[in-house]
Design goal:
about 140 residues; two-stranded antiparallel ribbon; globular; mainly alpha
Length: about 140
């Protein structure tokens, strides 16, 4: 991999097609943030918050339960951890070895195990690892 921010992440074929289409339509270069607004500018954390505020106007349970982009990440990670274990959840979130104390040194997950968890989560056939275009996190 070229830099520390390039990572392999399993994704479904459907998601990969959608991300590639989005990047092309919004003018994202390979070395730039992938997710962009209609005007081509990278979206910010504030934009994520605003989208969930808008959802809450139409779906009151979004506000009632405090659903946000971070909530989705936390909930998904919890599901992966409960079903597949801590090592796979750590790799799924890219939290690395230091997140779970000394036992994490002995328990690691392979990219194929993460792909299997993702396949069960999305209901898609087992995705293959793809090089992520994510170079800068916004969440």
């Amino acid at each position: 991999m070229n830099s520390r921010s390039d990572q392999w992440q399993p994704v479904s074929p459907t998601l990969m097609r959608a991300l590639c289409s989005h990047a092309e339509q919004r003018g994202a270069a390979p070395n730039e943030q992938l997710l962009r607004a209609r005007n081509g500018k990278p979206i910010t954390r504030r934009r994520y918050n605003y989208l969930f505020e808008r959802l809450g106007r139409y779906l009151p349970w979004v506000i009632t339960h405090g659903i946000s982009i971070h909530w989705l990440r936390h909930t998904t990670t919890t599901w992966v951890e409960r079903r597949y274990g801590g090592a796979i959840a750590r790799e799924f979130t890219r939290h690395g070895l230091g997140s779970a104390g000394p036992t994490s040194v002995y328990t690691t997950a392979t990219i194929n195990e993460v792909a299997s968890a993702l396949a069960h989560l999305t209901g898609n056939p087992t995705p293959s690892p793809q090089r992520s275009r994510q170079h800068r996190r916004t969440t």
